[in-house]
Amino acid sequence: MKKILSSFSVIFLMSVNVYGQNIPVDPSVKIGTLSNGMKYYIKKNALPEKKVEFRLAINAGSILEDENQRGLAHFMEHMNFNGTKNFPDNKLVDFLQSIGVKFGQHLNASTGFDETVYMLPVPLDKPGNLDAGLKVMEDWAFNATLSDKQINKERGVVLEELRLGLGPDKRMMDKYLPKLLYKSQYAERLPIGKKGVIENFKPDVIRKFHQDWYRPDLMAIVVVGDINVDEIEKKIKDNFSKYKNPSKPKERKSFDLPNHKEALVAIETDPDATGSGVQFIIKDSKAYQPDVTVQQYDQTLIEGLVNMMLNSRLAELVNSTNPPFTYGSVYHGGTYARSKEAFQGSATTKDGDQLNALKVLLEEVERAKRFGFTQSELNRAKDQMLSSYEWAYNNKDKYESSELIDGYVGNFLRQDPMPGITWGYEHIKKVLPTVELTQTNEIIKKLVKDDSRVIIMTGPKKDNIKMPTEAMVLNTFDAVKMADLKPYEEKTKAENLIKPFKSEGKITKTETDAKLGTTTWTLSNGAKVTFKKTDYKDDEIVFSAISLGGVSVIPDADYNKTKFAFDALLEAGLAGLSKTDLIHYLAGKQVSVSPYIGGPTEGVSGTSSKKDLKTAMELIYACFTDLNYNPDAFNAYKTKKSAMLANADSDPQYYFSNEYSKFINQKNPRFTSLEPTEKDWASTDYKMAYDIYKQKFANAGNFHFYFVGNIDEAELKNETLQYIASLPATGKSSTFKDTGYRPLQGGYTKVYKKGKEPKSLVTISYSGEAPYNEKEAIALSALGEVATIKILEKLREEESGIYGGGASGSFMKIPYSAYDFTINFPCGPENADKLTKSAVAELQKLIDKGPEQKDLDKYKEGEYNEYNTSLKNNGFWLQGIAQNQLDGSDKYDILNYPAKVKALTVKDLQDVAKKYLTKEKNVATLMPEEGWEKAKKDETKKAGAAAP
Predict the structure, then answer these.
(1) Model-level pTM greater than 0.90?
(2) Which residue intervals of 592-740 are DSSP H helices?
(3) Which of 50, 549, 704, 803 has its CA 20 to 30 A from that of 402?
(4) Confidence check: pLDDT of 333 > 80
(5) In whole angstroms, what is the distance from residue 374 CA to residue 802 CA?
């Protein structure tokens, strides 16, 4: 008896020892705290080579604003780009562009309720860049100049950003937010702030915010990249330790999302709403505590399994032939407040169907609560989770720094665990097999409770749609509790996708290209397979199959009957398996395959892990030979798509894009609308689309397959012979054709009126046919980047008239040769004409004088930076080696691009500007509907009255 007790004690103590342990911290990350309380995280990561990622994380956001500072946490973020000690006025952006960092695309920042984060990637190809990056971080943290001049200039930019968020969603949110964030400070501190404050605050008010909250004990600097950790640590200590906290620091309070006994219901509509939806939130009783112990970590993993199983059931409903909503999900997780988590669900629905969607969401939760999950569901969720961890572990040495750094930022701001993928994978392999249904079933029972519930319904206000009452919403909860529900049932999981067969296919020719590192096989059915073995990711293979033709060869009448059906074809499933069956079959596999019929091509694209290559090949084979035919699945897709687009024309931007597209394509009978209308659906022929697909994919001999990644050549060869060389072929070849239709070109000015908010959008375009010239194509693309720099300098920084915008230039080669140069920017309607003239004037300067050498150099540095990073990306190579098949371009272009960029001169850009930007242009402007001027005056009065 003693021995039995002794053994039990050992087991008990071992259990306590494991679960009482704290989650380890990734030992590859050096973490420290300076004497002033500032934290630092440093990790050496070799990818991308010669590049480093910086983050400055500040544990302060809009939640800490005083009433007269509403919006100034976000405004402060803007100001750090508008003058610091070492980079006065707008010199920061100018300098960073000069070393290859693109504003907005690479260089950015974000402000939330509780935090502000600055992001800076820096190429290390030149001496001094590392120190410059650290100097930027130091200035962002402590050395903003906050001059009156720059503050007043930036007001207009921030107001333009605020303007972008206006519309029906904002109007409805303003009404339901007091219930969603009931009795919480969060309801009064949206990061974008209040218009009146932004327009009228005195500069000292933002200086006070900066003084109170931009202080060392609320900050962390995070550095991940191709660096020497000890060197970076010394530099951080030398440069950041000298800064002091205020002698009487303001308390950094935390704010709650209070619980409440009663259920809160918000039912909000707007005439201009573009969609319908419902969401519910059931707040946890206790405050959120970050995971610290291994036991807490494991509990979160089990919650993750519950989320996966619930959402798998909802996905089955969405993919059914009678979907109750177009999208639905539930999960337990974070809310607006750091201190509170909640069980939450949401669905997008047909207009007027919100109550039924809520009922279905709650019924599925109740079904799981009442009957639990099945063992097969749990096994499938375990397989999915383990597969994801395994894939991450296999690639652990090939993650780019940008993929790692945000985890360390989350550790500082929210105490998110950061054990590292090695510990995480090894731990989950031990834990997952021990998880039982009793554990997952117990969790779902605890998530749903009767208090602290918030239900929100939104949708368009229409005479023919009757929204439910608050009583009807609350009754739904009670009705679901009493509903006659049955346990979840599922069909037996398919064991095989493709029945075993013997392939007679052979490789008839092998060619290698040492320069590209590729091998090409010609197969006995005429198909070609080109592959490139890389080590950019240890467990990734990307692939595509391309055949020339696409929709371009479909006659006009047939095209108009099928163009919107092609995207729906895969909804029917493959090889006798429904879409849901396929999802279940692929659980635990890292693989995706998508067939398509596009403009000049048809094909297949996808990704796979190394061990799932065989499954990927099976899916490719099924896409070619065994696409299911299911009119019910197509009708379900059509129902969901129609629900999503029912109110698309209420969105001013969509309306503008669609109407302008109709105008410039008025001579093209193949164009009807950007998205399908009810008229389009009425004429759509699913069977014809299916037959066209089958006919196109019946000739594998017209396809070229490409594989890039960590490929085992022998395995790829075996799978190619089995699944690609065996595909049917007709011996015929096809290519794309030019339909002959052209958009209207030049000389048109169009104004479209839509929307009640004072919001405009301007598009200026130059386009036309011209013989393709590679040098001009690169120069035109460069001109677009340079024009973007000048437009932002003029319209944003000088005139404070826009938040974002820019230009792009391109030259297409197929199906016919044509150029396009376009400028786009959103703005206030009162400024649309003035800013249009300013943008055109900037182009005229480029035409008359050519660009400045420094701006061309910025473009070149940005291209070199992106190119060097892309060279270690499998997807980049996949696209590059396939380009020759598409347009006949030099197959070595992918290698020669930097030299061609380097050869560009100011004169080259000026020449294409003179050649292509002196022709007549189209100018299209979106303006609000009549009455916006009065509405704006009323809003100005209101904002002025509310100003401090």
Answers:
(1) yes
(2) 613-625, 631-645, 652-664, 678-683, 686-696, 713-723
(3) 803
(4) yes
(5) 55
